UniProtKB/TrEMBL annotation:
Catalytic activity, reaction form: Preferential cleavage: (Ac)2-L-Lys-D-Ala-|-D-Ala. Also transpeptidation of peptidyl-alanyl moieties that are N-acyl substituents of D-alanine; [GlcNAc-(1->4)-Mur2Ac(oyl-L-Ala-gamma-D-Glu-L-Lys-D-Ala-D-Ala)](n)-di-trans,octa-cis-undecaprenyl diphosphate + beta-D-GlcNAc-(1->4)-Mur2Ac(oyl-L-Ala-gamma-D-Glu-L-Lys-D-Ala-D-Ala)-di-trans,octa-cis-undecaprenyl diphosphate = [GlcNAc-(1->4)-Mur2Ac(oyl-L-Ala-gamma-D-Glu-L-Lys-D-Ala-D-Ala)](n+1)-di-trans,octa-cis-undecaprenyl diphosphate + di-trans,octa-cis-undecaprenyl diphosphate + H(+)
Membrane-spanning intervals of the chain: 12-33
Compositionally skewed regions (Low complexity) per UniProt: 630-647
One GO biological process term: proteolysis
Protein name: Penicillin-binding, 1A family protein
InterPro entries: Beta-lactam/transpept-like (IPR012338), Glyco_trans_51 (IPR001264), Glycosyltr_51/Transpeptidase (IPR050396), Lysozyme-like_dom_sf (IPR023346), PBP_transglycosylase (IPR036950), PCN-bd_Tpept (IPR001460)
Protein family (similarity comment): In the N-terminal section; belongs to the glycosyltransferase 51 family.
Aminoacyl-tRNA synthetase as UniProt keyword: no
Organism: Schleiferilactobacillus perolens DSM 12744
Classification via PANTHER family: BINDING PROTEIN TRANSPEPTIDASE, PUTATIVE-RELATED, PENICILLIN-BINDING PROTEIN 2A
Length: 679
């Protein structure tokens, strides 16, 4: 009674009806607008085109597409068409693009599954719209978009055209798209030659490509094939006798499918897709369907050499006891332009747009952080490659942080270049403590690597950071040493041109930021040359070539045994920078790198550089190796003047310079000690 009076007074039901109609009208207007502005008119043309990738020399390197070989409807067996229509959309030739009964099923599913559409209810036209113009996320809103797009597609194309586009764009499992390639993959024949049994088997795959394809699940395939043959009888496409004969037919599998080699650089092309989307806002479905031309910084020779190196299992550590494969990633950068020349994002089977370790992992960098966090700012504070630094086991701060050298050997005092080359943790932390953690943090951030507040302590200088870094980040940072102190903007794409010829992305004019002086670069490179001549990178040095850079590793738990979690090498010449990481995806007591801190990564880095460097300009370094230069000075040099006066003068000048350097070093130490007291 109360409800009736309340409704009579306030006209609630009438207002609810008005509100419902208003919302419906608004939603219809919105979805109509979305459908009208979608690129429906060029849908068939787009399905026939592919996006082409070009390298740094504007030569075609491959294609990015999820399409198979496109064939017209008269080249597709009627048995395939009838099987698909019978199981996917019986009213296909009569409906306006959607099916009311299907929508009712979708509505029930929406209620049962609390706002999620779990599948079903879509006509062939709706599925075409979803596969070509929408994302795969199943929601009620997307379902409405599907319907309006299906109506728009039906307005522009005949039913035969729609069926042709659908069958050419459908996924049939095992990396195969389109009915023609699926016919070759499973039955070794053209789509036009398939019989009723084979046509029903292909239609069966559409329900779940991973579950019903006959290669991986023959019993499942036969079971659903027989169901579809029964549906074809119900739909008047086969007689019962024809269906029984088809059910009795054995599925003979023949693989004549020749996979295209157009996606020959998978991790590089994946990264190009990611950059197009993340940096320039171009949707994946547009990249796959709209026939762009994408110009990149790819060096096909470098990329091929890197991929070939990763195929050589002998240069990687052994698998774990349970068979888990040691993973790795590598990236090569042109330090002068920032153009990424080559990328390998992992070992084993590649997954389309899967995890790319070269660009996406975040792992502790170990000692590869030292040149960025400690030695560069130390040079800028007045230290020199031959300045003496303390190499002692000692503790710092209230928490008694005590860095250890890997070999537990301490020289007491060593030249700075030797501390870097031999990767002495004790000396590095001592030096960072002298110059101040804040200077180290500022230096690392100049190189493009963020250091969270929680990591800003002495441990970060030797790689103790929680967030970690990627090989691409490290390659970019070290490129500044190879590029005269300029930090380049690393990138894959230089230009994108659409199917009409319009330039939609222009990244041809790149820039680099000066973050170091040439003197700092020279001193740092001089010290990092010693890493490969006589330091921890000696076993990774490619024969006959000069490389500068740094090795790094992160320690595992003591209870695991002797080994490391991650191993790194970042090396550079004036022409190229390469960063390589080796480790397990998930590290624990049964999955870590056993042995020396550079033992696991050195062979693959050496092989890569040995293959890559012959194809570069081989520009020589303009500075000498600090270790070799110091040794030559200590041995009296290589000059021919052996007079006592000359030796005395050289020794005197050397001693005076060392005395001046020592005074500078002591003054710097006193200053930092006093500053630390007040802080």
């Amino acid at each position: 009674m109360f409800i009736r009076r309340f409704n009579h007074r306030y006209q609630v039901i009438r207002w609810l009806i008005v509100l419902f109609l208003t919302v419906s009208l608004g939603a219809s207007a919105f979805f109509t607008y979305k459908a009208k502005t979608a690129d429906v008119e060029n849908l068939k043309t787009n399905l026939k085109t592919v996006t082409q990738i070009y390298d740094r020399n504007n030569e075609k390197a491959g294609t990015i597409t999820n399409k198979g070989t496109f064939v017209e409807l008269n080249d597709i067996s009627p048995q395939v068409r009838n099987a698909v229509i019978s199981t996917e959309d019986r009213s296909f030739y009569s409906n306006p693009g959607f099916d009311v009964k299907g929508l009712a099923r979708a509505g029930v599913s929406y209620v049962i599954h609390r706002g999620q559409i779990t599948g079903g209810g879509s006509t062939i036209t709706q599925q075409l719209a979803k596969n070509t113009l929408l994302t795969q996320k199943q929601t009620f809103v997307r379902k409405f978009q599907e319907i309006f797009l299906a109506v728009e597609i039906t307005r522009h194309y005949t039913k035969d055209d729609i069926l042709t586009m659908y069958l050419n764009n459908a996924y049939f499992g095992n990396g195969v798209w389109g009915v023609e390639d699926a016919s070759q993959r499973y039955f070794g024949k053209h789509a036009k030659d398939l019989d009723a049994s084979e046509g029903a088997a292909l239609a069966a795959i559409l329900r779940s490509p991973s579950f019903y394809n006959p290669v991986d699940h023959l019993d499942n395939s036969i079971s659903r094939r027989n169901l579809i043959l029964g549906l074809m009888v119900d739909n008047g496409k086969l007689t019962q006798d024809q269906a029984n004969a088809a059910k009795a037919e054995k599925l003979t599998l023949v693989n004549n499918y020749q996979q295209s080699d157009e996606y020959r650089y998978p991790y590089y092309f994946d990264a190009v897709l990611d950059e197009a989307y993340n940096r320039y806002g171009i949707k994946e479905e547009d990249i796959l369907n709209k026939g762009y031309k994408i110009y990149t910084t790819l060096n096909q020779t470098v990329q091929t050499q890197m991929q070939d190196s990763f195929k050589d299992d002998s240069v990687f550590p052994a698998n774990a006891a349970d068979g888990t494969e040691v993973q790795a990633a590598s990236v090569a950068v042109d330090p002068n332009t920032g153009g990424i020349l080559g990328v390998v994002g992992g070992r084993g089977k590649h997954v389309f747009r899967g995890f790319n370790r070269a660009t996406q992992i975040r792992r502790q960098p170990g000692s590869t952080m030292k040149p960025l966090a400690i030695y560069t700012p130390a040079i800028e504070e007045g230290y020199h490659p031959d300045s003496m630094v303390e190499d002692k086991l000692q503790s710092y701060g209230k928490n008694k942080y005590t860095p250890h050298n890997v070999d537990e050997q301490y020289a007491g005092e060593v030249p700075m270049y030797e501390a870097l080359a031999q990767s002495k943790n004790a000396a590095a932390v001592w030096l960072l403590n002298k110059i101040g953690v804040s200077k180290g943090v500022s230096s690392v951030e100049r190189f493009g690597i963020d250091v969270p507040k929680s990591d800003q302590n002495l441990a970060f200088g030797i790689g103790g950071v929680t967030k970690g870094v990627s090989p691409l980040q490290m390659a970019r940072a070290y490129s500044a040493f190879a590029n005269g102190g300029k930090l380049p903007d690393t990138h894959f794409i230089t230009k994108i041109v659409d199917a009409t010829g319009a330039v939609v992305v222009d990244n041809t004019q790149t820039s680099a930021k000066q973050i170091m002086t040439q003197k700092t670069v020279n001193d740092m490179t001089s010290m990092m040359l010693a890493v490969f001549s006589s330091g921890t990178g000696a076993s990774a040095k490619p024969y006959g070539y000069t490389v500068a850079g740094k090795t790094g590793s992160t320690e595992g738990e003591n209870s695991w045994g002797y080994g490391t979690k991650d191993q790194w090498i970042v090396g550079y010449t004036p022409d190229i920078t390469v960063a390589t990481w080796v480790g397990f995806d998930n590290t624990d007591a049964n999955h870590f790198l056993k042995g020396l801190s550079e033992q696991g990564v050195a062979p693959i880095f050496k092989l890569e550089m040995s293959n890559i460097l012959p194809n570069t300009k081989q520009t020589p370094f303009k500075v000498a190796d600090a270790a070799q230069e110091d040794q030559a000075n200590n041995n009296g040099g290589t000059g021919t003047n052996n007079s006592g006066d000359s030796d005395w003068l050289n020794d005197f000048q050397s001693n005076v310079q060392k005395g001046i350097d020592s005074i500078k070093d002591k003054a710097s130490e006193w200053y930092n000690d006093v500053k630390g007291f007040f802080n």
